[in-house]
Amino acid sequence: MCHGLDGVARNLTSGEILEQMLQLQRLLGDHERLSHVVVMGMGEPLANLAALMPALAMAASRDGLGISVRRVTISTVGLPEGIRRLAALNCQYHLAVSLHAADDELRNQLVPANRTIGIAAILAAADEYFQRTGRRVTFEYVLLAAVNDQPEHAQRLLALLRGRPALVNLIPYNLVAGLPYQTPPATTTARFAEILAQGGLDVAIRYRKGDRIDAACGQLRRRTTAT
Known about the structure:
The chain is 36% helix and 14% strand. By secondary structure, it is of the alpha/beta class. The protein has a six-stranded parallel beta sheet. α1 (14-27) packs parallel to α2 and α6 (151-161) packs parallel to α7 (186-198).
């Protein structure tokens, strides 16, 4: 599945999804094995559950890669129906919701899909996921300088998530050509995290890897098209 700046091309098949994992396993050393899977980066996994679930099942099977289901994370922009379908399967996968804002007005700007969904519906589905699976949900929050990284934004996020068994994963923005956003200073990120932690939320700041080769979070993008 490809979207983002390039738009949607098509959904991947189960075989194509599994092939990515097999190719990674092939590149590892003799005494190494693929132990974790994170389904995110480009595309919406919950819009392709029919292909995704068989691929993950094969990856978890003893005849496949033998990866524990509790070491698989599925990331979503927040499709309530898809979250509920996943919860009904009770597969014990970890769920990560890309939130990026604590109110619909700002999230509508940052995540256009939110205009037909709304944060309240996403949180209701996430709560159901926890109730059915017992697995707390991670809320991903990309910090954009002077857009959603100020103390007042942190306070709104705290009010939205307080009392929920959730983890907030803060991700300082990685520069992407063609987009106007900037990375916030480290002090701004630290202050944002401090406000959340002082309010009782579990919070982590994602360590940046791969940004020098445009392979960090949010940077994965096809540069050429096969002919």
